[in-house]
Structures are given as structure tokens and as C-alpha cells.
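Notebook B, p. 112. Complex prediction, attempt 2.
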Amino acid sequence: MWTYEKKLQYPVKVSTCNPTLAKYLMEQYGGADGELAAALRYMNQRYTIPGKVIGLLNDIATEEFAHLEMIATMIYKLTKDATPQQLRDAGLAEHYVSHDSALFYNNAAGVPFTAAYIQAKGDPIADLYEDIAAEEKARATYQWIIDMSDDPDLNDSLRFLREREVVHSQRFREAVEILKDERDQKKVF
Amino acid sequence: MKSQQPFTSAKSYVPPHSPFDPCPPIGRKYYSTPPNLYLGFQPSDLPQFSPADALRKGTLWKVFYDYYDNPYRKGAGKSRD
């Protein structure tokens, strides 16, 4: 169960009318390395991982939903007042004919989200290594979006989200250290 | 603070270029090597940001803060703070 705070984890301000950026941001909304994939991956893996790190997966999965909400806010702000012509110029004509300006879990190329993006192998090390890789891929995706964006206010929010990927990767790496730790073993040399 | 760390959070290399490649060479390619690659388990008693700063930067711990900017833009790489 969750309690909801009716505010974003970090403010989202968009300073330029640029629906093309919304198209790029969809990579983090419904893409393979996006926030939805991250949240669902950790939320599901936590059932079959040693108790010492269940809480970590739970906390990070929860935060990923807060990031998803920030990305949604960005996409919404960038498209809500766009005319069909502006959406067409932004490469979003195909999105418009199916969804109007509604948000949908597509990636930047318009491919809909699929559970095949994520895994749960049941092996704690395999799953945590996947999670570390997912955080690094999400970090890289934020970098490439920042590289493509000229909007300083949007980039400020994207830098916050990128920093969170760095911290999450660190915590998953520490989780691996916890699970492989041998300090409790009695060793005779 | 960054200069005191024993690692750099970005690296670069020059990809090969041939006279028959259609585009002019990009020169350097850049990639991030953020602090989480170097620390292992987080040591105790690391310096922290103030709570207000931490909320803005996305981390409480100074060692994990890694500002990113487009490395291919002129004048890039300067943190705004």
C-alpha cells in the first residue's frame, strides 16, 4: 500500500514550446530503459530476493513511479496546447491519429511498451546486475536527451533525474556487496 | 571538490576516421564514468549537502553529485553552481 503526496518529487518547468522534446521524452516514459520499465521490474523482483534487500527494491521502485510522474508532466506540458500541425511537425502525427494528445506508454520511436523489456530471473545476483545495468542505461538515456534539448529549465529537471539514477546504481551495487558478503562465515585457514 | 577525488566522472576517446568516411570527424567522443563506479560500499562519515541543496541536486552526499552537460556543445561542462 502507498500513501500519495500530491506534488512532484522535483519541480518540472518547461520554458519553450517544443513538442519534439515530448517525443524524445517518451523514451523515458514507455521505453525499454524508461521509468515504467524500472518501476515494474523492481516492484516485481522484490518478492523473490533475500530479505536484506527487499526494502531497497521497494523504495527504488516507488521512487521510479515518482519519476514516471515527472516525465508524464513534461510530456503533457509540451503537447497539451500543440495543434495537430505542430504535432505533425514534431514527428508525432502517428501518435496523434491514435491518441490525440493523450499520453501513452510508447518509446520515442512510437513502439508500445512490452513486459519483454524487463526480467525476473529469480537469481538474486542476476537480477541485481540487471538492475544496475538498467540504471546505467537510464542515466545514459537522460544524457542523450539533455544533449538534444535546448530547454534549460527542462534540463534542470532531467539532471535531477539523472543524478537519481547514479544514486540508485550505487545502492544496487551495495546490495550485491551485502548478498556476497562473507563476514558472517566461519572460516578456517 | 571534484579535483580532490581520485577519479574523473567523464572520459573521452578519439574514434578512428578514414578519408572515405562521409561526415567530417566528430573529434572526441565522450562518456560518463560517474562516482558510483568507484566507491564500492559507501564509507561512513562522508560530507553531506545541506537538506535544501540535497533536494535540488538529487543526492545528500557530495561524493555522488555528478553534474552533466552536453559535452559536444561549445562552453559545456561548467556547473551552474
